[in-house]
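Quick one:
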Amino acid sequence: LNLRAAIRTIQEAGDNLSVELIRPLHRLGQTELQLGEIDSATASFQRAVHISHVHSGPQNTGQIESLEAIAGIYFASDNIEDARDIQRRILAYRARADGTESEEYLPALQHYADWMHKLRLYNRERNTYLEILKIQEDVRGPDDPTLIPTLIRMAFSLHDVSMSSLDDNTLRRMSSPDRYLGRAMEVAEASSDWELFAETALKVGDYYTKAQRFGRARSAYKDAWQQLSHAPEGLARRNEALESPKLLSVPRLPEYYEDQDPLYEAGSTEGFESGTIVAEFGVTKTGESVRIRLVESQPPGLEKIEQRLVRNLRSVMHRPGMQDGAMIDTQQLTYVYEFYYRESRNKN
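Output:
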């Protein structure tokens, strides 16, 4: 109400296209989104973009914040095409502002790659990583450590969908995940930075664990263990990173039980009760979840969500625990799942 009153005041003092309307319109859109007023929020963001065009031109970067909000609305409603088009516009505006061959352009490219991954447009994601790598190599050289995160992201992207879905030309350009992971390890080793080498080996091991290529995973984790064992300051990191299992992906579980509205934000809990399910399980030396059992459910009786938790825990992979440089089986780990539910939905 306060934001709408402020917008009316600005309009009465000036006109409907006053530049001073942009910020309150954006904030109004955010508030409407929190309240679940999706159509009103979209209209507020779009009006902020329109006024930005009037004052600064259609390719100004000041509109990006509102465009991002609109893309988020489209994504939440499964409007993949429109979300993609907005992200393409945002990237074009950043390219015009930063130049397409400068390091200043890299954050925009990474943001675009993240969005393409979220939209499951993996081919576009990979092409973007190739563009990032080219800029990094041209500016910093082929052996600069800043290449390592991009090389590893490329490998994970290639893992996310079958290589058979790519055309022959793209396959020739991209090769296999092993190529990018191997190069990441080479760059890390050439840096003579033991900490960088260890962290790279951990990420490479995580990739091979998720890909269920356990021999390569074991070799990478051993490399990390050895590097972290040489320096006193590495022992604490070894203990934290390798001596107990680590989840490599979060189980895909709803925050709101049986809620059909994808736009609920964290904290929009009015009318909901909080629930908790605690599961106990073990992790094998290859990182798989075994012997899963539920030890507590509050409230009791939500069998569908209990079964979903068990299925998800069974499917996720862990970085296995290690002892004396070797992977070990680990018993009696605990996973706590917290969620919200409506009292009327406390049924099977």
